[in-house]
Amino acid sequence: MTETTPMINEDSLPGHESKLEPKPEWQPRYQGSDRLAGKVAIISGADSGIGRAVAALYAREGADIAIAYLLEDDDAAETKKIVEAEGRKAITIRGDVGDKKTADRIASETFNAFGRIDILVNNAGEQHPDKDITDITEEQLRRTFQTNFFGMFFLTQAVRPHLKSGAAIINCTSVTMYQGSKELLDYSSTKGAITAFTRSLSENLIGDGIRVNAVAPGPIWTPLNPCGGASPDKLAHFGESTPMGRAGQPNEVAPSFLFLACEDSSYMSGQVLHPNGGIIVNG
Questions:
Q1: How far apart are CA 34 and CA 38, in angstroms?
Q2: pLDDT tens across 44-89, in order?
Q3: When comparing pLDDT for 52 and 24, which is higher?
Q4: Residues catalogued as catalytic
Q5: Could you tell me the pLDDT band of residue 3, with boundaries at 50, 70 and 90?
Q6: DSSP secondary structure string, the chain?
Q7: How far is CA 164 from CA 43, 127, 169, 207, in A?
Q8: What is the mean pLDDT of residues 189-193?
Q9: Quick one: CA torsion of 79, 171, 13, 70, rounded to 10 degrees?
């Protein structure tokens, strides 16, 4: 297969949280209760946005974290400090998750550092808005699937030999999978694939005691939208179309990822949670 390179020259993706104003809210909202004590989690895209908020909350609940990220060294270093401030260990692993060799390296470096892998959070993603389907280049279509879906598949393959009964996989899908999005045709399509992958993988692994679930956020204030080509007008009204009338914050999404990673959700697999500001969806 021809290597597909990141589209960092097409727009400002993946984007630096350190340059975003106002800053997203990643801070956990409550004291931890050791719900992930002794666990090790890999979180892709953990340098910023939802990934950073999940890393912070997992660390507060007792997990050590492998922070997988593309190229934002400053953001990844900040997430590492956040995890360590919670008294947990963290490593940073730089590379394109859409490349299978990188996915294999993320799994091996995490296992070598911590001796176990208990939780995989497939969160890395990118989007490129286009008003017409004819505006979507072949390169963009391949790249969006490479990051959002192939990367998730590759990383799950790489981690699978290390997962034991009681492990959890949580995938990040999107409200756009359920609602559709007229300007995110390729992105929404990847999220549909992710939801189908989540349900199918759950069926595949449930007999081994490994639970697979997903989270489908609505409009959340992270670098993904402002750095992903959204227009100034869209950003000015970002999230206002939700019933709550506002965008969500990463720390309002992270608890869904925690619930699905810990024993609180021991009777759930193949399911999707919807922190989306009150948007009613089926599924």
A1: 9
A2: 999 999 999 999 999 999 999 999 999 999 999 999 999 999 999 9
A3: 52
A4: 187
A5: very low
A6: -------TTTSSTT--GGG-SSPP--S-SS----TTTT-EEEEETTTSHHHHHHHHHHHHTT-EEEEEESS-HHHHHHHHHHHHHTT--EEEEES-TTSHHHHHHHHHHHHHHHS---EEEE--------SSGGG--HHHHHHHHIIIIIHHHHHHHHHGGG--TT-EEEEE--HHHHH--TT-HHHHHHHHHHHHHHHHHHHHHGGGT-EEEEE---SB-STTTTTTT--HHHHHTTTTTSTTSS-B-HHHHHHHHHHHHSGGGTT--S-EE--SSS-----
A7: 18, 33, 11, 11
A8: 97
A9: 50
Q: What is the pLDDT of residues 103-145, one digit of tens each?
A: 999 999 999 999 999 999 999 999 898 999 999 999 999 999 9
d(CA 223, CA 125): 11
Calculate the alpha carbon distances from 37 to 34, 47, 57, 277 in Å. 5, 22, 12, 30
Number of Cβ within a 10 Å radius of residue 268: 15
Supply 198's token pair: 């989540």
- The amino acid sitting at 189 is S
Q: Which two tokens stand for residue 19?
A: 């340059």
CA nearest to 210, candidates 283, 245, 261, 176: 261
Q: What tens digit of pLDDT does each residue of 237-272 get?
A: 777 789 999 989 999 999 999 999 999 999 999 999
